[in-house]
Write a structure and sequence with these properties.
Length: about 120
């Protein structure tokens, strides 16, 4: 199944986190296209700027499995409820589109997503 994922990080080691994300993607998926890594402002205007990337991948995983796999990768990168409450995101992985089904339509209204999506 072809899917669209959005990944982002705003922690002090965000460059390293995005490199780790690129390696995770290439070792677990057939990456069809990617936006490259780019910087955006935090939605709340207060938290540190993000590095983002939008990718189109092919996978045999079901949507629920892919979401869980992304959450496991987030945890591996150090994401926790405590860091999120502080406005620090070590890694965020969201499944936006699974095949023809849009799972997160709100992403298509957000500049950080549209910027990368238009680069695919």
């Amino acid at each position: 199944m072809e899917c669209i994922l959005t990944l982002g990080s705003n922690c002090p080691q965000k460059e390293r986190m995005m490199t780790k994300a690129t390696e995770w993607l290439s070792s677990n998926f057939d990456v069809v296209a990617d936006s490259g890594i780019y910087q955006t402002r935090a939605l709340n205007g207060i938290s540190p700027d993000y590095l983002n990337m939008i990718v189109k991948v092919k996978t045999s995983l079901e949507a629920t499995q892919l979401i869980q796999f992304g959450k496991e990768f987030e945890a591996e990168c150090g994401r926790s409820a405590e860091s999120k409450n502080r406005g620090i995101v070590e890694m965020d992985v969201d499944l936006v589109k699974y095949g023809k089904t849009v799972l997160r339509p709100e992403e298509f209204t957000r500049t950080y997503f549209i910027t990368g999506y238009n680069k695919l």
